[in-house]
Amino acid sequence: MRVTNNLITQNIIRNLQQNMQEIAGLQQNISSGEKIKRLSDDPSSLWQIMSLKEKLLFQEQYNLNIDNGLLWLNEADRALESATQILQKAQDIALQGANADKGDADLQVMAIEVDSLINQMLDAANTPLGERYLFAGFHKGEKLFLRQGEGAAEEVVFNPALPEEVLGRTEREILPQVKEEVSLNGKELFIDGNIFAHLFNLKNALEAKDTFAVHDCIANLSIEQDLVIQARTAAGTKASRLNLVKEKLTVQENNLHDFLAGLQGSDLAAAATELASRMLAYQATLASATKVLQTSLVNFLG
Q1: Which of 119, 120, 114 is nearest to 95 (CA)?
Q2: What is the number of alpha carbons within 13 Å of residue 88 lying toward its C-beta?
Q3: Which of 105, 126, 249, 282 is the most buried (most CB within 10 A)?
Q4: 57 CB contacts (<8 Å, ≥6 apart)?
Q5: Bridge partners of 158?
């Protein structure tokens, strides 16, 4: 009889433990919202989940790269817009200065205005972006462009203390093995493009009260303005391309999240129903135990 009671006791304990494990598992599924947490739960689905999570990490990184690239391009657009407006003001001054009716005092005031425009253009060329410079993405520290010299010899130059390597291409990977350049070469645009040279020519011509030379500056400044507009258009085209890629990546990322949720997500309603069923089974097992085992044993198991 003692052997029979031992067997019954072991069987009841085993059933209770199994029910408790199942209840604990269901409670964990409900609290976490996930039905697969270990390889043993569903090996095939778990490998898919791991693969999807890896893809999502790459997708998220590409989106971060695109956001950073858009930051560069949007800041470049603002700086180039400022440069365009400065060149337009310089042309307006040149048109006024080319008028033979303007007196010496008027021309001197205009020269001072152009001097201010040169400083504004210098600020645009040295536009910072965080710890770096917009038109030289590899550089931190000293300004890229410096104003030096006096009188007719005054000019803006690329900082001679810096290697030209700082002007290298700044790229962002936006898709697997696909990179987009998000930088603009400031030296090519502002120095090699003669923007500052033509602004200084206008200033010097106004100071010299040479209305013919002032008139010659109008066409040159217009050409420089067109070049800046072209650079701005190129930056805008790149930004549009990045936004398009970002939209596609966002759709793909949402689809991956939905698929992932379908694989690892727990059906809360079904899990709650099953939990209630398991709890009833557990209570039934306890009730059955009271009819077979001694009260002390039932109390111990409960």
Answers
A1: 114
A2: 8
A3: 126
A4: none
A5: 145
Same domain, 143 and 186: yes
Distance between start and end Cα atoms, the chain: 24
Confidence of residue 296 (pLDDT cuts 50, 70, 90): very low
Find out whether 224 and 205 touch, Cβ atoms under 8 Å: no
Q: Are residues 235 and 112 in the same domain?
A: yes
**13 found inside a domain:** no
pLDDT at 164 over 70: yes
Read off the CATH number of the domain in which 179 is found: 1.20.1330.10
Contact 170, 182 (CB under 8 A): yes
Task: Supply 234's token pair.
Answer: 């190129």
| Distance from C-alpha of 277 to C-alpha of 269, rounded to nearest angstrom | 13
Q: Are 179 and 172 in contact (CB under 8 A)?
A: yes
The most distant pair of C-alpha atoms in the chain lies apart, rounded to whole Å, by: 129
* Residues 181 and 171 sit within 8 Å (Cβ to Cβ): yes
Query: Per the structure block, which two tokens stand in for 197?
Result: 């040279």
Domain that holds residue 278: 266-302
Give me the phi and psi of 20, to 5 degrees please: -65, -40
In the chain, the number of structural domains is: 2
The structure's pTM equals 0.71
Which residues pair with residue 125 across a beta bridge? Answer: none
Q: Which residues contact 295 (CB under 8 A, 6 or more apart)?
A: none
pLDDT at residue 85 above 70? yes
Query: Residues 6 or more apart from 245 whose CB is under 8 A from it?
Result: 62, 66, 174, 175
- Which phi and psi angles does 184 have, rounded to 5°? -125, 140
Reported as a single tens digit per residue, the pLDDT across 268-290 is 455 556 656 666 666 666 666 66
